[in-house]
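Practice problem: predict the structure.
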Amino acid sequence: MSSEVQTLVEMGFLQNRAEKALAKTGQRGVQAAMDWLFEHNDDPDIDEPFEVPKGHTLSETAPDGNTSQQAPAGEGEQDVAKSLKCDDCNKLLRTPEEAEMHAARTGHSNFSETTEEIKPLTEEEKQAQLAKIQEKIKLKRLENEEKEKQESVRLEKLRRSQGKELAAMRQKMQEDEIRKVAEQRRKEKEEDKLAKQRVRELIEKDKRDRAVKFGMTSPAENSCQSADKPPVAASPSVQSTPAAAPKEYKETRLQIRMTNGASIVQTFGVNEPLAAVRLYIQLNRTDCQFPFTFSTTFPRKVYSDDDMEAPLQELGLVPSAVLMVTKL
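Answer:
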């Protein structure tokens, strides 16, 4: 077992994986093997036995049946190439792949075979290389944590941005709803005004018709007589005092008390339904959001869903009233 394989095994990697990683990386060292193992950890053939490819030796039989020249007895071990040497910097390399990598990094091009053997790492060198690898792993982990932190910040910013957009949409919907309710109230007030005007015109017409009917005179004669004769003061005994007509209210003042003790005072049209009051409270309430209805204390009454469509005048909430917000 080589020193690099032993180092990888001591770090927790399987021997088969360590040998395969070193071979796949061209014996470029422990760090390169670790990088390869991390990248190919999920490969389906990662645990298959690794077969070292056979190379050409000096004593191997040639294709034509001849054998290469044998070294003299006692000198065979000295002629066996154990490594490659860079003639430019005298660095020893184990395999041709390492020589190619060295040439690519340094630009050196002069290599030769040598019988010098690369010495295995000492215990101190192993510890130093292991510490270096552990430091790189630590830096890699810190880099990944920093990336995760940046991704978390990005997602948080995205979440806040989406939250602001949703809040803006909700605010716009509420404003549109308020404008819609205000427009509806304006139309109802305008209709009430026109209806009252028609009622007054009918009353005046009825008065004129009654005067013509009971006075036995035409409207033209009445106008002429009124112009010729001075007005005569009515006798106190004959003059009668008309009964006071009930006062008509156009608006009502409601005080709505929340469950947290706060109160909201608002004026509504007498013909507006109770549902308009509930919608206004939903948009302006200061207590917790929960389903609710209204109730009164004197007399004690809890309004149902059917009451929400009734006008405030029919519910007896004119000219003013106090409503309590009640949980359903």
